[in-house]
Specification:
It is a single chain. By secondary structure, this protein is α+β, with helices and mostly antiparallel strands. The chain contains three helices and six strands; from the N terminus they run αβββαβββα. It has helices at about 10-15, 50-65, 105-120; strands spanning about 20-25, 30-35, 40-45, 70-75, 80-85, 90-95. Strands 1-2-3-6-5-4 form a six-stranded antiparallel β-sheet, with helices on one face.
Length: about 130
């Protein structure tokens, strides 16, 4: 993404990408990245105790995108493929929002998510549904 003079407008947020923070049944917070067509792209695989910590964790994932690992694996529920992104210590940070029937489709989803992360570093309030 190039910047010309002022702050650059994020291409991803302009395309309707948004990040939503959900609360689980135990009061923990998790983020969900949603595409412009309404489909979930990725979800946090870690629960956070506050909304602010959850949001900060997503921003940190985007800013540290080059230093995280990840890959495709069989689903723990059997039958299908999922992908995950983890930090150096092995703690999982993000994962596919669904199970894929084919390895190649799952791998493509993983690659697209990893390619999005550098763009999301510059995403503004539009990503969070704020104006």
């Amino acid at each position: 993404m190039e910047r010309s003079g002022g702050a650059a407008r994020p291409a991803v947020a302009g395309a309707g990408m948004r990040c939503q923070i959900d609360i689980d049944g135990r009061g923990g917070f998790g983020w969900r990245l949603i595409a412009s067509n309404g489909r979930s792209v990725a979800v946090s695989l870690t629960s956070y105790d506050t909304h602010d910590r959850c949001r900060a964790a997503f921003v940190e994932l985007c800013s540290r995108h080059a230093g995280v690992g990840g890959g495709v694996q069989h689903s723990s529920e059997g039958g299908g493929w999922v992908w995950a992104v983890w930090e150096g210590s092995g703690r999982t940070l993000a994962g596919s929002a669904r199970t894929y029937e084919r390895h190649a489709t799952c791998r493509s989803s993983y690659d697209r998510f990893r390619a999005l992360l550098p763009e999301l570093v510059y995403a503004g309030p539009e990503l969070w549904g704020e104006s």
